[in-house]
Amino acid sequence: MQTAAAQRAGETPPRRKKWTVAGILALFELPFNDLLYRAQQVHRAHFDANSVQRSTLLSVKTGGCSEDCGYCSQAARHHTGLERESLMEIDEVVAAARVARDKGASRFCMGAAWRGPKDGDLERVAAMIGAVKALGLETCATLGMLKEGQAEQLKTAGLDYYNHNLDTAPEFYGNIVTSHSQADRFDTLRKVRAAGIRVCCGGIVGMGETRADRAGLLAELANLEPPPESVPINNLVPVPGTPLENAAPIDPFEFVRTIAAARIAMPASLVRLSAGRQQMSDELQALCFLAGANSIFYGDKLLTTGNPEAGRDERLFERLGLTAV
Hints:
Blueprint: H1 4-9, H2 21-28, H3 32-46, E1 51-61, H4 90-102, E2 107-112, H5 119-133, E3 138-142, H6 150-157, E4 161-163, H7 182-194, E5 198-200, E6 203-205, H8 211-222, E7 230-235, H9 252-265, E8 270-273, H10 282-290, E9 295-297, E10 301-302, E11 305-306, H11 310-320, E12 323-324
Parallel strand pairs: 1-2, 1-9, 1-12, 2-3, 3-4, 4-5, 6-7, 7-8, 8-9
Antiparallel strand pairs: 10-11
């Protein structure tokens, strides 16, 4: 923060540290206990160490996406057995949001399987956002790539966060997605920021990437100006019928290292345990919280894949002395 004297003198505040891939890799290569100790120190300097934010995610339009993301069950070209569904009605969305709020979620995220929304569909989603906002929840949407003016429409509707993940490192991106470039994703993130909407942006691990690729993803996220307010770290759930259905699982300790490196590189961001949590033991999740994770998706389903039931999360929070916020 700029000092009062510097402000009076008109000095330019120091630039925020830029992370290199080598710098992130150096974190990964620390002894495990040293890495977690450092991550926990950073975490405590910026957050209550025992508070975890809870978001609920609802697929408001499922299946039939024209993109070819190799991990996704909703791509029309993948044969996953998922049926294409129409955009949900607003009363259905509001009912789901009310249940999420009453179970303790503070943010409600709406996802639609589109390359990007058509104007007519965006008007309907905007109405959903306004209705969910009226329930006292923070609102988030993930609708694909946005055209000029669409982010402003979402902001006017009351959207607090827009989710648009970078997925993986730039060098590995073409192995996962070919129907659009990562530059297209950066373009949408710029539109979201320009409209004054906060950014939710992370990635997926366990897709066959190297440790250097994971470090590259985190460096890209940390060097966004400013970094994302929320950083979801997804552990791939291999879906039969997708190109990644036989991907080898990431080592659990490597996943924890990824969480810790994200916390150190983005100290003021919420780091969210996202997809793959249903397959994690309570002990692994506890290590992730120790490493600096302080947000989860809460509810029985994430778009089309399973998530731990709310009761399991409540019991885990009680065992660990964690408080939901």
